[in-house]
Amino acid sequence: MKSFTAPAIALSSAFFLLFFTTLVSSSSSFHPIDHYLISCGSHEPSIIDLDHRRFTGDSSTSASRFFTTPSTRTIPLTNSDPASSNSSPLYRTARAFSSPCKYSFPIQDHRGGTHHLVRLHFSPFFNSTSFDFSAVQFHVLANGFLLLRDFSIQNSPKDGIVIKEYIIRVDSDKLDITFVPKKRSNFAFVNAIEVISAPHDLVADVAQFVNSEKNERINGLLNKGFETVYRVNVGGPKVTPFNDSLWRTWVPDGEFLEKSGHEGSLEIHFSGRIQYQMGGATREVGPDNVYNSARVIKSSNNVIPKSNIAWVFPGIEGYKYLVRMHFCDIASIGPYMLYFNVYVNGNLAYEDLDLSAMTNMLLASPFYADFVVEGLNSESLNVSVGPSNMSLTNAVDAILNGVEVFKISNSLGSFDGELCVESVMKSWRRGNAVVIVPLLAAVFLLLTASVVVQRRRSGGRDTVGWLRLPVDVSEINLKYGSQQSSGKL
Length: 489
Hints:
Shape: elongated
CATH superfamily of the largest domain: Galactose-binding lectin
Radius of gyration: 30 Å
CATH class of the largest domain: Mainly Beta
Largest sheet: 13 strands, mixed
Number of strands: 27
Number of helices: 6
CATH topology of the largest domain: Jelly Rolls
Oligomer: single chain
Distance between the termini: 85 Å
């Protein structure tokens, strides 16, 4: 089985920097060109207490231009019992749709194709219209990507809030997000929408494909879309959107940590400054609060532990996944003291990883590595780090700061099954035809029956006097007479 070795890293560091890093200066702060925050169903702006962001109501004058659907096909909903809802004002209103409806956002940052973050917020609540949130089931489309299929909130978390995040490529001057009710459910809904242009280094075109047979470089990721499945801060606390320049949430790793085999691991926290540098990870790739904490394996008494630290992520199947692992040596007392192996799904993905070689011998400097795996034959994904043959005694022998897992869109542009956007819309139109044609037939039969009954009641006599037209009436006079009759009606 092929793997990366220390000599290969030393001889071709530029090659691996191309693999796993991007050349963007970390000193410049990020200001997204496109930045839309929409509170759906609301006339007033919603201010988020945690990160102080302002979401504009889609019923307001400034945001109504994004909503391109006639108001007769939508229903603005307001929570009738705000005290019982989530504390965030973002989930006190929503907009429901009875037929395909679209939000259209102008995109300035699209030359050459750029990636944008799209977040969709869903949270049911009680409302005076007795709208049944539990019965909704719908699809969501975005510029050729099928984001959600047959989506419902019946299995939502305890707090009732579901946030779906995507990174999608935009090649045109607008981003259309379309909500399509499923035929049997009648309605779709959404509480809030975020559209934010992503920094250009957030998605790399190349990654390392890892399986049991071989490791190989793959490219073409810039043309794909990504759905965030897991975002984990290893060894540290929850990171809220307030502490992330892209307003992301990173959850602690405790629930994913494999219970057996990590007894020798330690949580560490770093109070110094994270050294972002040219060629390494930027704050938009990972914030300080991810890189200043970690979980490590450390040898003692001249004995290097034989075990790895492992994390297991359930619910992985049917797609390719991008696994991004974040590293920052905040534990070593000097360079070239930390060597370890990285495993993905039990396969050796990186052998004798030396963070000093990746960061120009600078400690506390972040670095990330991207791996692609198949999720076809398993129901979970696991990653692990552990000592290598080059690990040193009385030193740190493995480290991990963060993990992200993204579902990669398939060849149809779908994140949810073998179905494309065109098929969803055709299915909706066919479903309407199935309903409309019988309805028209029923109306026709009722009208016919009404005429027959009326004739019988009048004794079979015509109720309208008919006059013969003269045989010499010209075509012009006939048309004129027709126009006169129409005008009277």
